[in-house]
Amino acid sequence: MNIEMERRAIECLKAFEPHDEQGYYLCYSGGKDGDTVRLLAQLAGVAHQCKHNLTTADAPETVYYIRDTIGKENIISPALSIWQLIVKKGIPPSRKVRYCCSELKEIGGKGQVKITGVRKAESKSRRALQELVTISGAPKHTVKAAEGLSVSYRISRRNGILLDNTNDRSRRLVAARYKSCSVAINPISDWEESDVWQFLHHYGCKSNPLYQCGFKRIGCVGCPLGGFKNMKREFEYYPKFYENYIKTFDRMIAERARRGQETSKVWADGEAVMRWWLGGELLNLPVEIAHNLAV
Ligand code: SF4
């Protein structure tokens, strides 16, 4: 295990610990990165609330694992389920139109400093948009405050203010902005996947049982961010979710028609939307499931 990386992550959590009644808001995903920051926060001894926001498309094993790990009182249900949200938005979530994470997963912790398990190694976009500290919202005010404190920062293409150190000036900026902005401390932003597994093994954390079933990422079943291959694999594992999405797309098409929104041949019905969503082909599901697809 990389002791130095662990030490730096713990120092980072200690450095930005908010000195208020609530402490950090730890965004717990139920995946390996979530477990890593959960354990790091315990090792650092910082005050924190460990919370999971349900999306309603979470795999059952993930929900059970989270319930057993952080307690059901720390699981928060959304105002709208993902099924209701898709109908309301009139479009399935996708890599380009990714409304669901912000409405379902990133809703808690207002006015608190958040801890996340974001790692830059996960994707190009994370590398571009995330740092050890990411401050979002009210960028003009944050830039003004950063200039006033002579903080070294850069601005992401989405106007996030990114800090890569824990020095006193950065700490003062975080303390000054977290009540009015979204401030995320990402203590494992520079960790590779192998660092995460070594850390978890060292501390005896087996993590979500789905990893032992061959899952590479833990999120919603059928999450479009995982790519077509992963979506298909997850739907083969959870055919009921596949069925639910098709029924939801049928309701979405009906709602689009009610609003007078255009619906092309590509989106003729729920199955057609699913075909489009999966990159051009439907899955061969067991007959009894296929027969139940009508809304
Ligand atoms: S994990 Fe994927 S499907 Fe779930 S809320 Fe986030 S983007 Fe949407």
Walk me through this protein's architecture.
The chain has an eight-stranded mixed sheet with strand order 3-2-1-4-8-5-7-6. The longest helix is centred in the last third of the chain and has 21 residues. Strand 1, helix 2 and strand 2 form a beta-alpha-beta unit. It is globular. The protein has two domains: 200 residues, HUPs (Rossmann fold, 3-Layer(aba) Sandwich), CATH 3.40.50; 64 residues, no CATH class. With 295 residues, it is α/β, with parallel strands linked by helices. The C terminus is likely disordered. The protein binds iron/sulfur cluster (SF4). Iron/sulfur cluster binds next to helix 5.
Assembly state here?
single chain
Enumerate the spans where pLDDT stays under 50 for 5 or more consecutive residues. 287-295
Could you tell me the radius of gyration in angstroms? 21 Å
Query: Structural class of the secondary elements?
Result: alpha/beta
Small molecules (ligands, ions, cofactors) in the structure: iron/sulfur cluster
Query: What is the CATH class of the largest domain?
Result: Alpha Beta
Question: In angstroms, what separates the terminal alpha carbons?
Answer: 52 Å
User: Can you tell me the CATH topology of the largest domain?
Assistant: Rossmann fold
For the record, the CATH architecture of the largest domain stands as 3-Layer(aba) Sandwich
How many strands in all? 8
Main sheet strand line-up: 3-2-1-4-8-5-7-6
Overall 3D geometry?
globular
Task: Write the CATH homologous superfamily of the largest domain.
Answer: HUPs
Note the run of SSEs as H and E: HEHEHEHHEHEHEEHEHHHHH
Strand composition percent: 5-15%
Relative helix content: 40-55%
Tally of discrete structural domains: 2
The largest β sheet comes out as: 8 strands, mixed
Query: How large is the count of helical segments?
Result: 13
Roughly what is the average pLDDT, rounded to an integer? Answer: 92
